[in-house]
Amino acid sequence: MQRRAALIGLLGAELVSTVGSRMSFLAIPWLVLVTTDDPTKVGVVAFAEALPYILAGIFGTPLADRFGVREVSIGTDLASALVVGAIAAFGSGDFTVLVVLIATLGALRGVGDKSKRVLLPPVVEASGTPMARVTAVFSALNRMAMVIGAAVAGVLIAWLGPVGAIWADAATFAACAGVVVALVRITREQNHPARGAQESYWQGLRTGFGFVRRERLLRSLVGMMFVTNLFNQASAVVFIPMWVREHLGSPVALGWIGGAFALGAIAGGAAFAALVTRLPRYATLVIGYFVGGAPRFLVLALSDDLRVALAVSFVSGVAMSSVNPTYGLLMFERVPRAMQTRVFGLTGAITFGGIPLGGMVGAWAVETLGLSGGLWLAGAAYFAATLTPVFGWRLWQQINDIKGKAAPAAPLWQEYLSELGRRMGLVDTGPAVPVTVTLAYAGGGWTVTARRGRRRLARPYAVSSAAALQHVAALELPDVYETVEQVHLARRRAAEQQAAAVRANLRALESTLTELRAASAQWPSGQPGERPR
């Protein structure tokens, strides 16, 4: 029960932290706007938090391995509470002080978020809950917290003012630290996952970079998410506001469209959390991107009806709810525990890096091509990025079983169409379709078959036990060789026993024949009856 409480507490802490961060996301820009009346300074504040967040995620996370991920999580939350309190107390005075405090908060969150994420696997293992389900719940809670945080922030800003909302955010950071102190207990090895490596700071940093460089699947997924995040941000800050102003003329529609997508994401996240252990990850990810990605841009380019935009936004939110859990599960199961803080920081910086660029790309597209042309360009680019798992299906199907079991075979036509594209240099689908040679033992004999992919190259043909043992010995696979050798020795012993039994029977027959001949020779010639033969 205590172990389950630790998991619930950690998820609850993340929920509270996300709600608080969302409150600050809205309250701090509003504070800057009402105190300076300068929208440019609002952009400066946003950049001052984003850049340290990215850099700290890359360069600060090796320190978490050294000092302990639990202690770093607690320490960064407490420090964040103090910094946010300082923003509430002093931020409305000097703008330079506010920028420094915001940058400090971004750096603390960049390290603290990654440390809290690394705390999750040992807590999940102790609770006995499937990791796939926890990542789905984690993602759904994050979506829910963003919606709740925005609503709570609006109420608090109206009730207490922006400074009061920022003080409330400081309290959420302190509450998160308290939950981790009270409920989360992990072993020394789990708290210091990289302790056994005895690496220096720079060696640990290079090890994280080297791991990401070697992992093709991870690099492909992170690269695709960089592009999709870029255009998601362009849609949120440029395309949707421009579409609303041009076709509807009411800012209320901005909240309706964002709310429809968020509600779809929450509903889809709840359904995905219930079905995640039964759904094929690769197919779910691909379908989710196809349904929830490019159609959002194309419907704005083709329609001016708010009802259509709301329906497509809701469906897109449902479809996209599978993306973040699949990405999180890939990271947790494929990245070794000792490197998770460093790798999470690096990959998070790359995927997050597309967000600051999204607004600039969206503005350039609209200025150059107009709103409709920009939407068509964004939709085409988004669709092209989401084709990556299709063209690289051989690599991406590893998502179906991240721990290394064989992925299910693709349809034969798809396999050879992909191989044809690879040979012509049109797509990179990894290595050629492999040739598989199977040695099987059945019915007292060995047979060999050969296939390329799912096509049979040779009919099964029989080989002797000695030949099977000789060929397996050349593969340098001790466990396989031992198994074949045992079968070979068992067959040889059975053959020797059978030969010994035949020789014993022959000796017995020869002895009986000799006795009969001796008895025949001693039979009296005048004795009635037939002589023995």
UniProtKB/TrEMBL annotation:
InterPro entries: MFS_dom, MFS_trans_sf, TM_effector
Entry coiled-coil feature ranges: 492-519
Compartmental location: Cell inner membrane
Membrane topology, record value: Multi-pass membrane protein
A Pfam family of this chain: MFS_3
Major facilitator superfamily (MFS) profile domain boundaries: 1-397
Entry-linked Gene3D superfamilies: MFS general substrate transporter like domains
Keywords annotated in UniProt: Cell membrane, Coiled coil, Membrane, Transmembrane, Transmembrane helix, Transport
GO cellular component: plasma membrane
Chief place of localization: membrane
GO molecular function, one term: transmembrane transporter activity
Transmembrane segments: 42-60, 140-160, 166-186, 221-244, 256-275, 282-302, 308-331, 343-364, 376-396
The protein, known as: Major facilitator superfamily (MFS) profile domain-containing protein
